[in-house]
Amino acid sequence: MEISNKTTPCIYDAHCHIHETPDNLNVLEKETVVFCVQATKYTDWNDVARLKDQHGWRVIPAFGVHPWFAGRVQTGEIPSEWHTKLRQMLELYGGGIVGECGLDKVAKDPETGKAYPFAPQIQLLKKQLLIAHEMGVPISLHCVRAFGTLFEVLKEAESKGTLPPRIMLHSYSGSPDMLKQVLLKGKLGKHVYVSVSWFVNGRNTLKSKECIAAVPECRLLVESDLHDAKEALPALERIIGFVAEVRGWTLQEARSKLMANSRAFFNIDSRNSI
Predict the structure, then answer these.
(1) Which residue in 115, 155, 164, 256 is a FRET match for 127, CA 20 to 30 A apart?
(2) Which Gene3D superfamilies match (predicted)?
């Protein structure tokens, strides 16, 4: 990843979609924030790539197929060779990651009112996990009400030796017990990072406090999970303050620790920090 010796970012937004509000992207030139911008649909991969081209070190690109859109491969809306292009994008944009992908048993297609088909989600998740492993890059996972299946998929990859080097559970919405007893245990736990956002985790602060307390401090990340760049920084400040409160850190300690964790997750050398 290219570096800048002009500024040192104070915050990493580990997961956002700010490419969807191009009119507000001037904030990228004003704030010392690095945004991991997550594609979702295949059709927006080039949008994320352009953002990286335009803003350099301030953007970490993520290319993937979100579970809501996994069924589009079956319908032909996403070409069957999507995985070839994914590899190409990761090769072209060093420092990029796979995402957003995962599993979702709750969300419904607004056009049909029906839940998004689940079988294609599993199929595409397995393929994207394998690509992340083979390319040696991290992956950002969405999971809603499907943590049992997610664990089965990850354990299968573990048994085959094909886990990605680092796995982000973004805006983690599962239980504290799932973290402590399953996802952060054994060989799998050595790969897992847990990211929290005020957008999602602020909805149930009691459970979120328990989850944040359950994560080893070196595996915590923060994100905005927002689409508007202007709203991202206040959201990041709020979740950083919440993490600091839960962990008993000062705000400066929280920023420092979370920055170090982000650099570790994205494999950014702190000696040449961006």
Answers:
(1) 115
(2) Metal-dependent hydrolases
Domain ranges for the chain, please list them.
11-272
31 strand-pairing partners? none
> Could you tell me the pLDDT band of residue 8, with boundaries at 50, 70 and 90?
low
Contacts of 244-247 with C-beta under 8 Å, sequence gap 24+, read 246/209, 246/212, 246/213, 247/212, 247/213, 247/217, 247/220
- HSE at residue 189, side-chain half, CA atoms within 13 A, is 13
Q: Which residues have CB under 8 Å from 61's CB, separation 6+?
A: 36, 37, 39, 48, 49, 51, 52, 89, 93, 95, 96, 97
Cα dist from 257 to 5, 216, 218, 243, 253, whole Å:
21, 11, 7, 11, 6
Model-level pTM greater than 0.70?
A: yes
Best CA proximity match to 96, nearest among 60, 132, 125, 130: 60
- What is the per-residue pLDDT across 211-236, written as a single tens digit (0 to 9) for each? 999 999 999 999 999 999 999 999 99
- Helix or strand (DSSP H, E) at 125: helix 118-135
- Give the tokens for residue 235: 């959201």
pLDDT of residue 5: 39
